[in-house]
Amino acid sequence: MAVLTLEDCSANRAPGRLLRRIDKLMTAHVESRFAARELSFMQWVALKVVRDGVAGNAGELARELSITTGATTRMIDSLERRGLIERDRGAADRRVVRLAVTEAGRAAIADQQRHVVEAWNEVLAEFEQQEVDHMVAALLRLLDAAERVVCGDQLAEAAA
After folding, report:
1. CATH code of the region 21-126
2. Which residues lie across from 112 on neighbouring strands?
3. Are residues 51 and 105 in contact, defined by beta-carbon separation less than 8 angstroms?
4. Whole-structure pTM value
């Protein structure tokens, strides 16, 4: 079992700080490539996570994007007006509103995806493919472990 020491968590090596710093840098880097585009990077991410099944309703999308439900509703409204996403009320329970990406939304995702890939490839240019593969695998394991620990605790608290 891996264990971090206090020295491992100094400001220059703290895993949380490193992840936040990479996220902020890469978000700004990728957003700059969306500056003159019809879709913002956040809107593109919203479409992509709905298309990929990560988020299926407004609440899940808000949690995935770490934005308020009000901001999420405004984003969905905007994407819906542009024909990129649609709300689908469930037949069994009309209170349930699922989100679905339209064909135009799928085309917008595909059209913009290369900007995201190009930005990451620019940053990863000095890495070997095996290093990138290991990094992605380690990040997936880290996310899985964090979700298991954090969500497991939240589920246990909710049941109590």
Report:
1. 1.10.10.10
2. none
3. yes
4. 0.82
